[in-house]
Write a structure and sequence with these properties.
Layout: H1 5-23, E1 39-46, E2 52-54, E3 58-67, E4 73-81, H2 84-87, E5 120-122, E6 135-143, E7 154-156, E8 159-178, H3 179-187, E9 196-199, E10 204-209, E11 214-216, E12 223-236, E13 241-243, E14 265-272, E15 276-278, E16 289-292, E17 298-311, E18 316-333, E19 336-339
Length: 342
């Protein structure tokens, strides 16, 4: 049977593909971006599972979410926006089930979901036991507003905002080797241990760039010292808004009435391990310092670090810990139409 050149080329690939699949090999596709963790909204629906209701009909909005990150989510609460002005009151007064504030703001039915309380916590997944992260639900009960029958149905777009406090923790080990160690290792065809990084799955990602292994040389007393830079990249990968309050107050994302000083900020702390010391320009980070993310998305800082007391007795690994504390919010919206009745 006659085949054109294109078909022959495709057929020639089949044996190669078969070998790859049979051997279990995978084709490298380069470094993967960090996976965002934290609270993930699983659904925001109504109890009726409909997109249209009648004027005056009761309805409950249900929000379900889960902790998919690496640390415990704290101070969790939620708010619903976009309905209160139109769905609050009729000629008699406030309508609908569930609590309202004196300012005619609808609160969740569950007390623990309300910003007026202390919030609650959700545990992260446990990889060792194979359990998922803890989940929870918040609900809001309303009664649809009065709409004249002769008018078209009126659309509404309620939005829920989920608030919580979270952390990102990174542990970076850095390898140091003397000239003698490097020469001896190379002579036998070996390599020094690579630097390692362990980081939580969080909506704010942290990465550290530094050259490793780092060479040093000893002086008269047999010890060595070396200064080297580290570059810390911070990125908002959770798709939400991050907030930090320098005074350590909770609910800083909620308390933006007096300004937006805390918005797009995180509280960053750098803890050098034994034998490492931050230079002057970054020493304030040992106690913690506010960092602003450009347009709420990213920022980078560079610090000089000094490693002292190094000895030429084989490669040495020392660690540095970077921790970010912040509050985080994510939004989700749905739609509902109200049909007028007599």
């Amino acid at each position: 049977m006659w085949l054109d050149k294109g078909c022959k080329a495709i057929l020639m690939l089949f044996p190669i593909l078969f070998v790859i699949l049979a051997s279990g090999c995978t084709i490298p596709i380069g470094p993967q971006p960090p996976k965002a963790g934290g609270l993930t909204i699983e659904s925001f629906v109504t109890d009726l599972q409909v997109s249209e209701i009648s004027s005056g009909e009761p309805i409950t909005f249900q929000l379900k979410f889960r902790n998919t990150g690496s640390v415990t989510a704290k101070n969790v609460f939620a708010e619903l926006f976009g309905l209160d002005e139109s769905w609050c009151c009729d000629m008699v007064g406030i309508t609908g089930e569930g609590p309202w504030t004196s300012g005619k703001e609808k609160l969740p039915n569950e007390e623990r979901c309300r910003y007026t309380g202390v919030g609650f916590s959700l545990l992260p997944p446990d990889p060792q036991s194979g359990t998922l992260g803890e989940s929870s639900t918040c609900t809001w009960s309303y009664k649809a507003p009065s709409i004249p029958k002769n008018l078209p149905s009126v659309p509404f777009t309620p939005t829920v905002r989920l608030f919580y406090t979270y952390k990102t923790i990174l542990l970076k080990s850095i390898t140091f080797g003397s000239h003698q160690d490097l020469r001896a290792t190379q002579n036998i065809g070996g390599v020094l241990p690579a630097s390692t990084t362990s980081v939580t799955s969080s909506p704010i990602s942290i990465s550290v760039q530094t050259k490793s292994p780092i060479r040093f040389w000893t002086v008269g007393d047999g010890s060595g010292e070396v200064k080297f830079p580290i570059k810390i990249d911070i990125k908002n990968i959770g798709g939400g808004t991050v907030c930090a309050n320098e005074g350590g107050l909770l609910k800083s994302c909620k308390l933006l009435i007096g300004g937006e000083e805390s918005k797009n900020n995180i509280f960053l702390k750098i803890t050098p391990g034994l034998g490492l010391e931050l230079r002057e320009e970054c020493r304030d980070f040992e106690m913690g310092k506010i960092i602003t993310l450009w347009k709420g998305q990213s920022n980078s800082i560079t610090c000089d670090v000094v490693a002292a007391g190094l000895e030429a007795k084989g490669p040495v690994q020392r660690s540095i810990t970077i921790e970010a504390e912040y509050e985080y919010t994510i939004d989700i919206e749905t739609s509902i139409r109200v049909v007028g009745t007599e």
